[in-house]
Each structure stands twice: as structure tokens, then as C-alpha cells.
Write a structure and sequence with these properties.
- The protein is built from 8 helices and 14 strands.
- The protein is an alpha+beta fold.
- The chain has a domain of 81 residues: Winged helix-like DNA-binding domain superfamily/Winged helix DNA-binding domain (Arc Repressor Mutant, subunit A, Orthogonal Bundle).
- β6 and β7 form a beta hairpin.
- α2 crosses α5.
- The longest helix has 20 residues.
- It is elongated and about 75 Å long.
- The N and C termini lie far apart (59 Å).
- 29% of the residues are buried.
- The model has no long low-confidence stretch (mean pLDDT 88).
Length: 290
Amino acid sequence: MSDDEPLSPEEAFALFGHDLRVAMLLELADAEGRSLSFSELRERVGERDSGKFNYHLKKLVGRFVGHDDERDEYRLLYPGHHVIDVVQSGVYTERASVRAVDLDADCVHCGGGLWFDYDTINSGRVRCRDCGRILLGFPFDPGGLTDREESEVARAYDLRTRTMWQRAARDVCPVCSGRVDAAFDDDVAPKLAATHDHPVLAALDCEQCSFFVNAPVGSLLVWHPETVGFLAERGVDVRERRLWELPFVVDPAAVEIAGRDPWRVRVTVAAGDRERVATVDESLSVVGFE
């Protein structure tokens, strides 16, 4: 098989079935300039057998590792960086959790206090201590726990969640950069939803990889200029508020189905005694802001 031919998923995973190959990528990622000579790389992975080392290195060259003929050095290629990113994110290797952290926000359902907790299996969640409803739930890589206090993890979780949803809503998968199908879904099982009790959700499903999210429709407004401007005029900086602190994102009462053929969903954005109503169409685009 030539380097230009695509690999099947089975063939791609099989390439990393030997720990020496993973060690090569890790050492290249850690090296100054992300490149090393043949002898330097062999020394760093601790392989005395030059023939064995060369055999495994050749399995990576062309797809995950490149060779600089002028400098006679090996360097990580973009796909190699992706492999290292997955390894170092801890998704495949770690089981982690954090102590539940009280948040300075109230539940929109019952007024109870909110808390954030996280474990590798159930992902990150913002829940109400009293009624138990999930206001926000979305995966978060274990690597995000490194060198962060619990309160800092909650901040990082919010930032990562909103940026991933933003990219997906703009038709760029945050995992593989593929196209994303966008549609409304008013029949989503709670375990598959990013929030509870909303009449309809924004279903974002990558056409290429396994990424999907059933997000609150209000999340589509977080970066919309009309929302940002309206709230800024009333002293609310959307960038500084967490998603669970924005009622138009987490409050089911802020969302109304105005029509299904074609789809029209209305989301109320309130600040003090003033409010604006956004209309979202079947493509999950904001088509009105009254």
C-alpha cells in the first residue's frame, strides 16, 4: 500500500499496536523543534536493536512521521500530533473525577443551589442539589483536570463547551472538522440531551465522525451580535457569564416552539425588565431578533 492510499480504521489503529511506535511519537512531540535524528530518536526510546527500531519507524514514516532529507531528521506530521493529542488528553488512559463544587448560581427550575461535578464516564455536569435536574452536561477530557483546582475545572469546562458548540453550529465539527448536520429535535431521551426538560433541542451531528450534541437552542445565541449587544447595554457581559448563568440557555421557559412546518423556535433573552425574542429557523440560523 502506498502512502497516498487511505487507511481503514482497523489498519490505522493496528499501526499503534506496538508500544515502540507510540514511544517514538511521544519523544518527537517532546523534542526541541519536534524533530530528532535517527540515532537521537533511537536513544531516547531506549531501543538498542537498530534493525527493530528502523522497522517500526518505517511503519510511521509518510503518514505520522516525516523525514527532512536536508537535515536528516524525523519530525511529527499533523496526523502524528493528533495521535499524541488523544494520548495526552487522557481519554483512553485515565479514570478521573473531581470533588463536586458549589457554583454561584441558582437552578432555573426550583431555585436550589447548583454544583459542578465530573468523572470520566459521565462527563462534566452542572446539576441542582435540590431537584437533581441537569442544567448542562457535556464530555470533558481528563487532561483538563491537570494543574487546575475544581473551580478552575468548571471555568475550563464552560469555555470548552461553548466553543465546541459554536464550531458545530457553524458547520465545522470540533473533533474532525467535517460537515455537521443541524436540525431541531423535540423527542430526545434525557440521557442523550445536554440539558433537561426543554421542549426542543438543537441537534448537531457530524457527518464524518461520532461527534454529536443535543444542545439547548439558546446556546445558538451566545455569540450572536444582537444578544451580545442587548445584554452588554444592560451590564451583562456574555463572555464572563457561564452557560448555566444565562437563563436563555438553560431555562426551558425561555424556549417556545412557534411552528414545525417549517420549524420556527423562539428564544427569549431577558435582562432586568427588558427582553428580546430571537427566532431560529430549521437550519438553526437566527432569522429574527425582535
